[in-house]
Design goal:
By secondary structure, the protein is α/β, with parallel strands linked by helices. The protein is built from 36 helices and 17 strands.
Length: about 725
């Protein structure tokens, strides 16, 4: 069989990627085959092509209904007949199921995607017995292992099901997460210990890894994104609430961003995803619900607002950057408090699951705090060696670019290994450190471990130092963290040899993240209050507002309102761009009325030799919710206010209040489509004139009082004020 010709014919590709050809041969020869390849490596083709070439139907077990549909569509796209691929899952009705079954019986279908739940049904198994099955492929096979990051119990019964159909069917497993532990679990569970194993390198040399302490997070985030203006990126957050908050903070600061999480209806999710793929927005802020099966080649940065629950997850998410081989900057923000939060969430889960979760988290912490090559650390985690001096992608992380201090640590390593030997290889890292630093607690005393020779022998170094030494000796294979016993430290042969004959060992000292981290929420709040206001400048600006208003023939509140002036007297903006970042000032307002203000402020700064914070000015979001973004988007789509209110389960008054906040913060909205329907023209003119000529403070209350005798509803007044402020002030 000419595989290259088949590849060209069915998929239009000229060459196989990586080990694809060998893998496909193995499947065609009927061998059990295990494929471990990073995301985007081209796993699908490894079962698609043999399925098309072999007699009978291949069953593909896949965890997500949405992914199945994509896959079926893509295979059909290469074929003349739709019946070449089908899926069978709970989303099909009876009639649709019958069509699928008819096509299967007729032998038309080469690939059938099933959910493990479907495969678990007796009638499915009985039906499959009637067919010729070429092989079963288990995609996303890490779901089998509870050490995989998305364990699915139904996945554990797949082998049983296959046996129920026919014991002789070859099995294929595919995954992008293969720590040695997960790999072993998969093979054991699927009864494929003798399988041909193909493991591609997980190294992604074009990705740059960086971890920063989570301080002044919003500011760091905005600066990072602004430095990459117009480039595509993903920001991952752990909670839906944070997703909405951050998307809003970015939007308010002039970055085109949209939120994405499973709490939105499917229409909104699809729309936001498409806008990202089509580059109508640059940044998508999302929970991990976003990204599976997304293949945008030019994602230039992946930011983790919070450290994820496991390095498997982290690696998959960062793997979405730089797929085209170009730049891909992976930046994660680390705060140990986030880890504690994650630990708290696990309480209430079964004990074994908690243990697993905690160990996965420990690895995340180790990664965040490590001072060694991050690429080496990650690849070690996935069971791969990496040469941090000459390997592809050496120097592509923060620790390489900005090296941590090092010292000769041979004697410390020796002490550590001695201690582990003295404890007869029964203790975990934390306990070993307690012994070395001589912190005797009752457990240590009851075991008599306070009397061993290494007790307290390392107390001149702090626990953090010891943690770093343990990590580095583990990665250097002097130690082994035994996963079956949840992390008990064991000596390797090399480790035992080191005790006999110590060698030089360079210890790299860690970052000290924990002490630097503080609460990032502080920034948002203090900025909003305009804490350290320059009173003298404020008075100058107030006067200036009055005179600019007079010159422009508008009331002063149209020019700038008080909170804006206070913010200016705090931030000292001296360019129009900086001015547009002030509370209540948008681009439009800055251009319209700003010139005189930056000039005055510039002069004032110079005269008084004021040292401005050259830092980026972050515009804060006063009401931190996704509601504003939602309303702005829907007004853009000319959706009536009452419908918006209904969709968000809000009253019309509340929606108007939100719109007023939007307008008062300097953003233009165009409600003409609604106002022209709701208010007749004469009334519109009268109210507009009132705001222009008679209003003093420009508030709704004032208008209600002034226009008392006329026949205006509060809603009409509020709508016209919004229109007026949008057109004249912003
Ligand atoms: P994985 O499942 O490993 O994450 P996919 O199977 O989705 O990866 O493949 C990733 C991308 O690589 C797809 O766009 C696919 O069309 C492409 N691809 C796969 N094999 C080849 C090949 N031999 N030549 C060119 N592109 C390929
Ligand atoms: Mg895949």
């Amino acid at each position: 069989m000419d595989l290259h010709a088949a590849l060209k014919k069915h998929f239009g590709f000229d060459a196989f990627k990586g080990d694809q050809e060998e893998i496909i041969k193995s499947v065609i020869e009927g061998k059990d085959t295990f494929v471990i390849m990073p995301t985007g490596g081209g796993k699908s083709l490894c079962y698609q092509l043999p399925a098309l070439l072999l007699e009978g139907t291949a069953i593909i077990v896949s965890p997500l209904i949405a992914l199945m549909k994509n896959q079926v569509d893509s295979i059909r796209g290469h074929s003349e007949e739709d019946h070449v691929a089908h899926f069978l899952n709970s989303s099909l009705n009876k009639a649709e199921q019958l069509i699928v079954k008819d096509d299967l019986r007729a032998g038309f279908t080469k690939l059938l995607f099933v959910a493990p739940e479907t495969l678990n049904k007796k009638e499915t198994i009985e039906f499959f017995r009637e067919l010729t099955i070429s092989f079963v492929a288990v995609d996303e096979a890490h779901c089998i292992s509870e050490w995989g990051h998305d364990f699915r119990p139904e996945y554990r019964r797949i082998k049983e099901m296959i046996k129920g159909i026919n014991d002789q069917i070859p099995v294929m497993a595919l995954t992008a997460t293969a720590t040695p532990k997960v790999q072993g679990d998969i093979q054991k569970n699927l009864g494929m210990s003798d399988a041909m194993v193909y493991k591609a390198s997980f190294n992604r040399p074009n990705l740059f890894y960086e971890v920063r302490p989570k301080v002044e997070l919003v500011k760091q985030l905005i600066r990072f994104v602004k430095e990459r203006q117009g480039k595509s990126g993903i920001v991952y957050c752990l909670s839906r609430k944070k997703v909405e908050e951050i998307a809003e903070a970015l939007t308010v600061n002039g970055i085109k961003a949209l939120p994405y999480h499973a709490g939105f209806d499917s229409g909104t999710r699809a729309r936001n995803q498409d806008m990202f793929l089509n580059e109508d927005v640059d940044v998508i802020v999302a929970t991990i619900a976003f990204g599976m099966g997304i293949d945008k080649p030019d994602v230039r940065f992946v930011i983790h607002h919070d450290m994820p629950k496991s390095l498997e997850g982290y690696y998959q998410e960062t793997g979405r950057g730089g797929r085209d081989g170009g730049e891909g900057h992976c930046l994660a923000f680390y705060d140990y408090k986030d880890i504690e939060k994650l630990e708290k969430f696990m309480q209430g889960k079964p004990i074994a699951e908690q243990e697993v979760g905690r160990i996965l988290l420990e690895e995340v912490v180790a990664y965040a705090e490590t001072a060694m090559s991050r690429r080496k650390f990650l690849l070690h985690y996935f069971g791969e060696e990496f040469d941090e001096v000459n390997g592809a992608g050496a120097n592509m992380d923060d620790n390489a670019v900005n090296p941590r201090p090092r010292e000769e640590g041979s004697k410390w390593v020796k002490l550590l290994l001695d201690c582990i030997a003295e404890l007869k290889e029964t203790a975990k890292a934390k306990y070993v450190i307690e012994i070395l630093t001589g912190r005797g607690n009752s457990q240590i005393k009851s075991f008599g471990h306070d009397r061993i020779s290494t007790f307290g022998a390392g107390k001149e170094r702090d626990p953090k130092f010891w943690m770093a030494v343990i990590r580095q000796t583990t990665v250097s294979k002097l130690l082994n963290k035994d996963i079956e016993t949840y992390g008990v430290l064991k000596l390797t042969t090399t480790g035992k040899a080191f005790i006999e004959n110590p060698k030089s060992f360079t210890v790299i000292l860690d970052h000290d993240y924990i002490e630097r981290a503080e609460d990032d929420n502080l920034i948002l709040n203090t900025k909003a209050q305009g804490s350290a206001m320059d009173e003298k400048l404020y008075q100058l600006l107030k006067e200036l507002t009055r005179s600019v208003a007079k010159d422009s023939d508008v009331p002063p509140f149209v020019v700038f309102q008080e909170p804006s002036l206070m913010d200016m007297a705090n931030q000292y903006p001296i360019t129009l761009e900086e001015l547009a970042n002030i509370q209540g000032v948008g681009q439009g307002k800055a251009k319209k009325y700003g010139a005189a203000f930056i000039e005055t402020i510039g002069g004032y700064v110079e005269e008084n030799e004021i040292e401005r914070a050259q830092d980026i000015i972050v515009k804060s979001v006063i009401n931190k919710s996704g509601t504003k973004v939602y309303i702005i988007q829907n007004i853009d789509r000319k959706r009536p206010i009452d419908e918006i209110a209904k969709a968000r389960d809000m009253s019309i008054e509340d929606v108007l209040t939100e719109i007023e906040n939007i307008v008062d913060s300097g953003t233009k909205v165009n409600l003409d489509y609604y106002i022209n329907d709701a208010i007749d023209e004469d009334k519109q003119d009268e109210l507009y004139d009132y705001f222009m000529e008679d209003a003093e403070t420009g508030t709704v209350e004032e208008a209600m009082k002034e226009m008392d005798d006329e026949d205006y509803s509060e809603e009409e007044i509020r709508l016209m004020r919004i229109k007026f402020m949008s057109e004249v002030a912003n």
